Amino acid sequence: GSTLAFLETAGGQITPASLSTVTAATQIGDPITVLLVGAGSMEAAKQAYKLPSVQKIIVSESEKYNHYLPEEVSPLVVKLLKENSGFKHFLVPASTAGKNFLPRVGAVLDLQPLSEIIKVVSADTFVRPTYAGNAVLTVKSKDDVILASVRPSAFEPAAEESTATSASVEEVDYVKSGNKTEFISEKLITSERPDLSSAKVVVSGGRGLKSKEEFDQLLYPLADKLNASVGASRAAVDAGFCDNSLQVGQTGKVIAPNLYIAVGISGAIQHLAGMKDSKVIVAINKDEEAPIFNVSDVGLVGDLLDIIPELTKKL
Amino acid sequence: MSSKIRILVPVKRVIDFALKPRINKTHDGVETQGVKFSINPFDNIAVEEAVKIRKHNKGVVESIHAVSIGPSKAKDVLRTALAKGADTSSLVDIGSKELDPLAVSKILKKIQEEQGSNLIIMGRQAIDDDAGQTGQMLAGLLGWSQATNASKVTINEDMTVEVEKAIDGGVEIVKAPLPLIITTDLTLNEPKFVTLPKMMKAKKKPLKVVRPEDLGINLESRLETVSLEEPVPRKAGIKVKSVDELISKMKELKAI
């Protein structure tokens, strides 16, 4: 058999989350076919040539696929999986786009997908978190074709090899969908900083910062110093300190950077679910009883207004 | 096109979000004895939104039906939905069984057909299995439009629906005619508390119990639980006294 992996692109580049999906696919062990759709996918295919174990690249540049509307992408994926009985696995990154269309594909093919796998045990057995990461489920699928979304933070992004593989490229046409959903617009938070989902260092703020002004004035200079992305707890988002897209937690982003600095974050279960797999966790909080200190490698108790500027200056 | 909206809101009974679940002794599930259960927070937001749509679009919403698939105790979460403003409800009583999202979607499709619903609003995920699939699967089975992780919903005069949705890195706006499935993000609204008098009144509203056998659906699970474990706990590290110590410790850990 072989594995079909959906790779998301942004500006003609394969996203880091998709590169993690390739890593998960290599762990299954079968040869990999990758699927790239929408504008810039031919450009991104050049990058796909250099990914390990990739044998075939399927591309559809139809503009209908530009925003990954699930009503459009699903019929194409369904057709590919039906026409090639060799595909035993179909993997997507657990991004909002991947999670949006994968279950739709599953329902149409009468298959039960696995959400956010964090480990490949064998070809039919996988590990995924449940209960906000408070329980880790090892699950075996009885489906003939196993569909799964891959949690990016659990797999290293696949590295491009120095020489291109001999993968073949196949262009496929748009598949008629009967779609009635119309894309109107999108508003992306653009930033010079690294993307939160794949940043090596994340500086994150919580309710311990008293206002939006404090959040901005304390966190951003520190993040600049460390070339870090900025995150936040749900409490900080709810208090209006920052945009919801910065939220780290069960209901926000799940990340695992090399360094996570939690500033004024108490450490609710919900938040821990989003960052507890970080390599090094640093917690700075004025409350020495804050649960965040139970998971942090290094903790410092004190006034954020003193500590953060001092830290920023001395780094 | 129908000019009336018939809303269906699926609600799940889950372990209360504030509790930390404990793995059971046989490592195939979590302890449920003596544990507080509540309506799934995302589903609570879905009910709230249905009621809000009715309030803000006079005469447009014909009915709001809540459905739960679970044990007979899931009647509690249906009563919460009724107290919040749903008109009618049904419980598909599956006892202590746990179903895959695929089986749940198949049941919900039957309920949609029975109710003639053309707008389904549901949570983007249940906080127990964290699958986040049922809305999209149901949309796939029905061949309907879908808008996931909704942070704002607007019903237009021509009965199309505009949905602002949370996506990686920002928001996206899509527009679709009915029928449509919307799944809720936490930012969609802030659910109000249900008052006791409303809870009492809800007891008089219709709650029909359906047996899954009568729906003629194969509920067999495609997934087999091999084991359920607690994650490897992270050890608490050390506390330092100063910024200088903090920096040297971070260097020691090769974090900077």
From TrEMBL, chain B:
<dbReference type="GO" id="GO:0009063">
    <property type="term" value="P:amino acid catabolic process"/>
</dbReference>
<keyword id="KW-0813">Transport</keyword>
<dbReference type="GO" id="GO:0005759">
    <property type="term" value="C:mitochondrial matrix"/>
</dbReference>
<dbReference type="GO" id="GO:0033539">
    <property type="term" value="P:fatty acid beta-oxidation using acyl-CoA dehydrogenase"/>
</dbReference>
<dbReference type="InterPro" id="IPR012255">
    <property type="entry name" value="ETF_b"/>
</dbReference>
<keyword id="KW-0249">Electron transport</keyword>
<comment type="function">
    <text>The electron transfer flavoprotein serves as a specific electron acceptor for several dehydrogenases, including five acyl-CoA dehydrogenases, glutaryl-CoA and sarcosine dehydrogenase. It transfers the electrons to the main mitochondrial respiratory chain via ETF-ubiquinone oxidoreductase (ETF dehydrogenase).</text>
</comment>
<dbReference type="InterPro" id="IPR014730">
    <property type="entry name" value="ETF_a/b_N"/>
</dbReference>
<dbReference type="InterPro" id="IPR014729">
    <property type="entry name" value="Rossmann-like_a/b/a_fold"/>
</dbReference>
<dbReference type="GO" id="GO:0009055">
    <property type="term" value="F:electron transfer activity"/>
</dbReference>
<comment type="similarity">
    <text>Belongs to the ETF beta-subunit/FixA family.</text>
</comment>
<dbReference type="InterPro" id="IPR033948">
    <property type="entry name" value="ETF_beta_N"/>
</dbReference>
<comment type="subunit">
    <text>Heterodimer of an alpha and a beta subunit.</text>
</comment>
<feature type="domain" description="Electron transfer flavoprotein alpha/beta-subunit N-terminal">
    <location>
        <begin position="27"/>
        <end position="219"/>
    </location>
</feature>
<keyword id="KW-0496">Mitochondrion</keyword>
<protein>
    <recommendedName>
        <fullName>Probable electron transfer flavoprotein subunit beta</fullName>
    </recommendedName>
</protein>
<dbReference type="InterPro" id="IPR000049">
    <property type="entry name" value="ET-Flavoprotein_bsu_CS"/>
</dbReference>
<dbReference type="Pfam" id="PF01012">
    <property type="entry name" value="ETF"/>
</dbReference>
